[in-house]
């Protein structure tokens, strides 16, 4: 999450030292926020690293730049997707897969795909080169990509080490731990329901 968004939302910022590699410790800031759908009751509370900038601004697409029509009955997660601008948050892959719904519309070969999500429909995939302005972005890294990804997920995991459960879910988990055992064959048995 960008620091600008966390300030605009007046979120409480926490500080945490994150170990990167064997000898380097980095001072990191994080916050907790709830995201939700504009169309239904879906919401999720997440921890976010707070950084100055997630990525460069996305390109602006005019109507002429979009050689496709969005069906008017679709509720887009971001109805202003074509306006471009700053990326405020990035959702981790763990939640991303939970957001995907059944429903996909392929507009045409070489065009983006419309994908139904719990937050609304999104436009995904490659854009045809309609901007006429090819820009390249290069991120140079002297360490291996897999190592960097592992560090990122370790940071995210350290922020999410305690799952957020509703009182009903917590009670269910408590009862499960108390009443269910696993035998040597790997079979579950419960102490709550009498067996004949």
How would you describe this structure to a colleague?
The chain is of the alpha+beta class. The protein has one domain (3-134, 143-159). Helices cover 21% and strands 26% of the residues. The protein has a 3-stranded antiparallel beta sheet with strand order 1-2-3. The chain has a 3-stranded antiparallel beta sheet with strand order 4-5-6. A hairpin with a 3-residue loop joins strand 1 and strand 2 (24-36).
Shape call:
globular
Strand content: 25-35%
Indicate how many domains the architecture comprises: 1
Give the proportion of residues in helices.
10-25%
Name the helix and strand elements from N-terminus to C-terminus, one letter apiece.
Answer: HEEEHEEEHHEE
List the main descriptive attributes of the protein structure presented here.
196 residues; alpha+beta; three-stranded antiparallel β-sheet; 8 strands; globular
